[in-house]
């Protein structure tokens, strides 16, 4: 950036950088889902969910009172599976990604 860049120009540049970050985050979430969906049916069953959760949510589990991460992962699967069909659809996964970024989301798990 130059010293003469206007405030509008700086805002536009920042906006482009932020859009790039959002796109990168979205790509990472898409890749995580695709990697975990080992049978490529567009849904995560409990075994595939376990693959997805393998290295995730250790701090969250402890923060919301779970010392047993496997139990936390199982209860979270039940919560994310909103239609209770035994799998997490891409739509349910996307909803989890949007809402699951606060400890509040994890209260009242089944």
TrEMBL record:
Endpoints of the signal sequence: 1-23
UniProt keywords, alphabetically: Signal
Domain of life: Bacteria
Segments forming domain EF-hand: 75-103
One Pfam family from the record: EF-hand_5
SUPFAM superfamilies found in the cross-reference section: EF-hand
Example of a GO MF term: calcium ion binding
Protein name: EF-hand domain-containing protein
